[in-house]
UniProtKB/TrEMBL annotation, chain A:
GO molecular-function term, one example from the UniProt record: lyase activity
Gene3D superfamilies in the cross-refs: 2.30.130.110
Pfam families per record: SAF
Protein name: D-galactarate dehydratase
UniProt organism field: Paenibacillus abyssi
Residue ranges constituting the SAF domain according to the UniProt record: 13-88
Plastid in keyword set: no
SMART domains in alphabetical order: SAF
Keyword line: Lyase
Top-level taxon in the UniProt lineage: Bacteria
One record GO biological process: D-galacturonate catabolic process
Amino acid sequence: MTAYKTIWLNTTDNVATALEELASGATVTVQADGRQEQVLLAQRIEFGHKFAVRSILQGEDICKYGQVIGAAVCDIRAGEHVHVHNLEGKRGRGDRNDNE
Amino acid sequence: MFIIWKANVEEVTAMTTSDHKIMAYRRPDGSVGIRNHVLILPTITCATQAAKQAADLVQGAVSFIHQHGCAQVGVDYDQTFRTYYGMGANPNVYGVVVMGLGCETHQARSVYSELKKTGKPVELVSIQDEGGTLSAIAQAARLAARMVQEASAEMRVECSLSDLIVGTECGGSDACSGLSANPAVGRFSDMLVTEGGTAILAETTELIGAEHLLAERAVNEHVRKRVYEVIGAMEKRAFGMGIDIRTGNPSPGNIKGGLSSLEEKSLGASAKSGSSALQELIDYAQAPSRKGLVWMDTPGQDIEQMTGMVAGGSQLVLFTTGRGTPTGSPIAPVIKIATNTGIYERMSDNIDFNAGTIIEGTETLASVSERLMDEVVRVCNGKMTKSEIMKQHDFGIWRIGPTF
């Protein structure tokens, strides 16, 4: 089994980052603060891109660096690619009228 | 002197401050330059072509092209004026030939008078007074040539890192920026602050979503409040335009590199600030009044940000990039730092330093930041950066009002 390089910055993060291209169907190990989890990848993940470490519900915050980087626009299953198609930013949203 | 970094206690770094003396130029106002340029400074777009042609005639003279200096009012006028002044006042500049047209709102004479107060050689050329372009070019080149010869007789003297104001910047970011190059710059920034120097954090747009972490590090309540004020003002500009800021930032290249939202980009960008206390929040192109870590309110756009920091007195800029950029300044060396080894190898024309070893796991963050410190010292002492060699003389002013 190939040991893929990934980085999971914080155990509270629901996403981790690929440090090399990850093959679809591969099982990768993510580690943070001595904790380890196995994730079965549903898609190929490009270098620098993120995948869900656990299931994320629509509307739920998506966290990296132990901080909020946006919200899920739909339900995301563990192992799925997380990017602009299913993550939306919560800041600088002049396209919404619920600001202020 | 031994320092134990808070972030990684197991990586104890021994550091002797005496290693970090630099040889640089001491200016009449006490500031320290690491370059010795003569700047032909056009204070109006109408004079930029003549200024460039004069600079082309004289070895050692530099200039830049821009489109500003007329029909500007209020705070927008002030900000542009401050930027012109700051470029001339930057300690990397030995002397300045201020070049104007004659009828513009940003009067060359006013910039000239302010620059005179620095004690450095300053001259004034007006195209209308000289009777046209060719005479003005000849006069500017003549004055610049004289200054270059005087400048060449200046000697570098021993100075210290505490004399430095280092601007930090990221451009063409990717998902590695926040993992390798930005944290390395952050550790460098902490080292510089420990040695009494000044580090500028900027690009307010790209701190949206990370402001709470920076506010916690403010030295006092006033600075803490200002953090939220400048972030609020920047975010409001997006609200005012009725658009999602993501349509412009993160950029298509950032997104291709794996960044999904402005908040994600910001959290990575803020790593450049290290862990030092935030001393003050300064306006665009304003000189810091305190040593240590300061935040300059600039947009995220690379050239406008860099120009603001250099006009604020930065002698050197550290610029991290994941996608690769050519950015450079006419008067300040810019050390380009790759976030990943792939881009370092592909764009070696432009990139000076590789932090991608952190991603590969072949080098620690501590080791990369030590190596960066060594590179900074070499560049301060005269080693040229790729952007200088490529004559990448970028300049752009953050305009905050309409042109009338």
